[in-house]
Each structure stands twice: as C-alpha cells, then as structure tokens.
C-alpha cells in the first residue's frame, strides 16, 4: 500500500507529536530505530501511525500512549537507576562523636535497614565546621512512598530500638543536626554506584542555582562539566535536583564525583578550572550573568561498612 499523499495538516500534526515527545522524553531514548521510523498521517478521518511500510490505524490519544510506552520501555532498559527515588542525608556530628555514629550505623542501623529492604548506596564521612565532622549517606528506592514505608518498619523494629538505646547509653548525644534532601532524578543523567576494589575519595557538591537558571546550569553540567571532569580524572556517579530550595530560595543542584583520592580530587578540580575548554564554556554560558550563587562541597571518605568505596 502506498502512503497517503502529503498534506499540510498532516505535516503539522506530525511536527506537533514529535515536538511534544522530544520535550517530554530525553534525546538519548529517541534513537532512530525507536522513533524516526514512525510517522503520523491523516487518512480516512483518523490518525495513522506509520512504521516503515506498515500502517497502524488508531486515534490520536492512542498514538500518544503507544509512543509513551515505547519510550518508557527504552528508558528503563538503558538506565534503571534513573527511575529510582533518591534521598541524601547529612548529619552534623557532635564534637568528638564520629566514632559513636559510625559504630551505631555499622552495628545496628545498616544491618536492620537491609533487613527491611532499604538500599543505601553509600556512607561517607567528611570534616565539618566543628570537631565532630559530617556523616553522609545516600538512599534509593523505587519511589518515595516505598522508602517511607520501609523506614516506618525499620523504626518500629525491636532490634533497632534495642541497638539505638544501647548506643545512646554508651555515647550520649551524637548528632547536632540532620539535613534530609529528597532528590529528583533526570532521565538524561547517568548513575554509577559500581563498587571499586580500591577505596576512592568522593566529592559531594550542592550548588545554589540562581532563579531561572536551573535548565542552563543543568545543561552545562551534563554537556560540558561532566566530560571535562572525566578528562581530568573525576568520575560522575550521578547528579540530581533537590526537591526543596535552600535558605535563599535558590534551586539546589546536587552532584557526586569520585577520584583516586582526596588529593587527586583537589588536583583535578584545579586542572578543571584551568582547562581552556571549560574557561570558554563558562564565559559563553554566563554572558548574561552568573548561573549560581555558591556551592557547598564535602570531600568524602567512604565508611568501612559502605557498599561503595
């Protein structure tokens, strides 16, 4: 069967479909084999979805559902980690109590969490503003509701309650403040929590992105910062946007990098800022003003019981 003759209304409708789906679904999913072989045409009063020389007749909403299902399947197949919910927690540890925090998580918290299906991608420590330092961990779950259910069961577990009480009796107060950051994933971000045989250093950053600049900052990070950092020896484990704004009502862009050591991370950062490509990109992307107001960075060392090192 020959294709229907081109008509302006059909071409317009096809452009509409393609534009809507290219906005909604990341470009990496829309490979030629997954999308460009499909064409929308009007024939005999209904929308027609073409694939190569085959015709599938369906109404317009059905076409959307068909394309949505195809794209979601492709997305899940390429990077399941991008579909998970993540939550970052940062503890300001009471002075001289880091050993007590590590002991509590090693002996009680992490074993009971695993029993209830809570997945913690990693645990780290870092110097802080006090002698206590900072204790950091990153959790993931299929969705927020599932993590909340798991944590409710975890909190009610008698084994956790007994361990927590024993830890309190031994160490007393161990944490001054807890900052919990629910994180939104991006379908075009890459996530890599593969364990390394050799312990590494990690760099956690929380950027304060100025109003209206989030898309520009995110695009610059994805397209330029990540590959340039890779060139200088820093590997991106993932990046997210926090679901709550900071005290200045700016968006919070969170990223996690890994290097051979803390010293290697510092060296790579220095080389990154001296990189001629980055200097050009930074100048071009900030021609109309800065994209961020500041950054909070933590140089992290993995805990001995962390799954990722």
List the helices and strands and how they pair.
Blueprint: H1 8-24, H2 32-36, E1 38-43, E2 46-51, E3 54-57, H3 60-78, E4 85-93, H4 98-115, E5 119-126, E6 134-141, H5 144-156, H6 158-171, E7 175-184, E8 201-209, H7 214-231, E9 235-242, E10 251-259, H8 262-274, H9 276-285, E11 292-302
Antiparallel strand pairs: 1-2, 2-3, 4-6, 4-7, 5-6, 5-11, 7-9, 8-10, 8-11, 9-10
Helix pairs in contact: 4-6, 7-9
Give an overview of the whole structure.
This protein is of the alpha+beta class. The protein folds into 3 domains: 71 residues, no CATH class; 102 residues, Alpha-Beta Plaits, CATH 3.30.70; 117 residues, Alpha-Beta Plaits (2-Layer Sandwich). The chain is 41% helix and 28% strand. The protein has 9 helices and 11 strands. Strands 4-6-5-11-8-10-9-7 form an 8-stranded antiparallel β-barrel, surrounded by 4 helices. α4 runs antiparallel to α6. The longest helix has 19 residues. The chain is globular and about 55 Å long. It starts with 7 loop residues before the first helix and ends in a 7-residue tail after the last strand.
């Amino acid at each position: 069967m020959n294709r229907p003759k081109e008509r302006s209304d059909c071409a317009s409708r096809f452009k509409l479909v393609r534009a809507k789906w290219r906005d909604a679904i990341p470009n990496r999913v829309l490979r030629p084999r997954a999308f460009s072989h499909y064409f929308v045409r009007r024939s005999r009063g209904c929308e027609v979805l073409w694939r190569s020389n085959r015709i599938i007749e369906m109404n317009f909403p059905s076409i959307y559902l068909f394309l949505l299902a195809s794209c979601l399947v492709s997305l899940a197949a390429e990077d399941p980690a991008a579909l998970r919910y993540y939550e970052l927690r940062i503890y300001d540890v009471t002075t001289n109590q880091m050993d007590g925090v590590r002991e509590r998580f090693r002996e009680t918290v992490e074993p009971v969490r695993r029993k209830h299906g809570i997945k913690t991608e990693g645990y780290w420590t870092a110097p802080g503003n006090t002698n206590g330092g900072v204790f950091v961990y990153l959790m993931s779950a299929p969705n927020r509701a599932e993590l909340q259910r798991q944590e409710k069961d975890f909190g009610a577990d008698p084994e956790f309650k007994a361990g927590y009480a024993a830890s309190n009796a031994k160490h007393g107060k161990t944490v001054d403040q807890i900052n919990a950051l629910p994180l939104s994933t991006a379908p075009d971000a890459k996530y890599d929590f593969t364990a390394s045989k050799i312990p590494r250093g990690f760099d956690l950053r929380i950027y304060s992105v100025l109003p209206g600049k989030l898309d520009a900052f995110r695009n610059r990070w994805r397209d330029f910062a990540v590959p340039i950092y890779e060139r200088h020896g820093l590997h991106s484990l993932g990046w997210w946007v926090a679901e709550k704004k900071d005290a200045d009502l700016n968006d919070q862009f969170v990223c996690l990098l890994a290097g051979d050591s803390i010293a290697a991370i510092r060296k790579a950062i220095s080389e990154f800022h001296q990189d001629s490509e980055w200097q050009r990109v930074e100048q071009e992307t900030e021609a109309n003003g800065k994209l961020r107001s500041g950054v909070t960075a933590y140089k992290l060392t993995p805990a001995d019981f962390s799954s990722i090192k």
